[in-house]
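Subgroup meeting minutes
Present: P.N., E.W., G.H.
Scribe: E.W.

1. P.N. recapped why we're keeping a running log of single-chain structure predictions: easier to compare across weeks, and new members can see raw inputs and outputs side by side.
2. G.H. added today's entry (484 aa).
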Amino acid sequence: MPYMSDNFLLHTNTSEKLFHSYAECMPIVDYHCHLSPQSIAEDEKFGTITQLWLSNDHYKWRLIRANGVDENSITGNAPDFDKFLKWASTLSRAIRNPLYDWAHLELRRYFGIDTLLSENTASTIYGICNEKLRDETFSAKNLLRFMKVKIVCTTDDPIDSLSFHAKLRDDGFEIPVLPSFRADKVIAIQNPVQFNDYLDLLSESTSMPIRSFDAMIEALDMRHDFFHSQGCRVADSAYAILPAGKGTHSQIKSIFDSLRNGCSVSKPEMLMYQYAVTLELSKMNHKRGWVQQMHCGVLRNVRTSLMARIGPDAGGDCMGDYPIAHSLCSFLNDLDQSGQLSKTVLYNSNPKDNDLLATIANTFMDGIIPGKIQYGPAWWFCDNKDGLVSHLKTLTSSGLLGRFIGMTTDSRSLLSFVRHEYFRRILCDFLGAEMENGDVPHDISYIGGLIRDICFNNAQEYFGFNSINHSTNRKDHYECATAL
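Output recorded in log:
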């Protein structure tokens, strides 16, 4: 089979039927991404494929560095074509890396280019892409429309004004672009100066002084309520080490006072403080009926020279290997005991934690909300072909595949929605092979229905997006599907 054919990643006749009849044309709910709401609100247009493809994607930056390319040709001031050429040279050496597949899916889906990208083809492909980008159909909003995206949830700081989300709503853009509440900066207290600078901004955004732990929680609750009024229904958090160690209110107050006075705290105190803040944020999520997402185990900004030169989210991160079971179970149990455990999506960056998170998720189901605690999609260092298959094996071994909320991009790129197609092809190939082996029922309609749910319907329901008025209806979901 030729590379990137219509049946790419589909290795059986049944897999082909499942994908083309049930998965291929399903719309997209992207419930966690890092797209710029400003870019979408202003309907940004891009002068070159470099600006669209390479300017914000630290996945690509990491790979290009691995090819021995100087930083100036990655994130620096080198001409756009030079950067593109370095990327093309890198990609030609990246066989089996998911970026190789994603890049060629992006060229094929958005630009109609079937040619493999390499040093030899870079100039031609660069010219074709740039010519197409002059067309209005390649604006930010139209790129979302083209890929049948129906919901986008961005990642936003509590002090954000959400003005661009409001603009999109006021302008009548038919694809809801909703904020997500990510309060990492009140949890990251390693640097007291940065922490205090942030609290001053939080104080300014709420017009209230923040001189105590209780005042900080009150300010966060005010912003949480504001986000809710702007359509937010999702919270997000990220931890290298999951917080552990419950403290008394007086202990937490004392730790906060030390931080507010510019003093560093010990590691046990830091974890105690983080546990208390995370618990309070989770109670807010429950109070307003939000879904909370917990990303576990990434060590961020471990290459300090890169952090100093470029800042965070530049590709200086790696998997962590800290134990997470005890602290995560303790945290979920505290919320469960108080009746304040909201829907929760758990992500791991280290595949060693696959079975761990899947079993923890099932432990805290309440018998009321289907799939309440989700073992979330394969994330970051795990969202490659092998990682996605491993994730599906874990999920089907210990949970309910039919309740799974499917893929998300977790991306800063407007072209990244092909990751949903990549996942869907692997899902259909996985189940198609099982059907042909006789390991699951060979019932196309039944399995196809589960696939439709995983691709779109489950996420719509789980996040409460069914009630949002957007440009689709249930019939639209199945326009291209023909039962075989």
